[in-house]
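Aggregate trends can hide what the representation actually does to any particular protein. This step matters because it turns folding into a mapping between discrete strings. For completeness, the protein is quoted in full, as a sequence line and a line of structure tokens:
=====
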Amino acid sequence: MLLVLLSCLGGGRVLQTGQASFYGEGFAGRPTASGAIFDPSKLTAAHRTLPLGTVVDVIHQRTGARVRVIINDRGPFAGNRIVDLSQGAAERLGMVAEGVARVELRLVQCPSGETCRVQ
């Protein structure tokens, strides 16, 4: 039973490492792929393949700063980036001035009935 619970919660397993970027005010008020209206101050992110509603911890690999976000949009669509963070999440990681940062994505919670893995 404990194994099933850990499987559902993810146990903090590393899903992916790579470059993160962020998006902000220019997208405020627009609908995301989940249907939610984008608010750059919220702790959200866009990922190409993780199920919408997945909760991940994003860890800045250089500083160790961490932020918990919910995947509510699709992207990024530029370069070799693995995740697009909201400006609020980027601020928590201290990466706004840099624009991009190397991060690690750790699974916190997968939506019920979904499989959370990077494709």
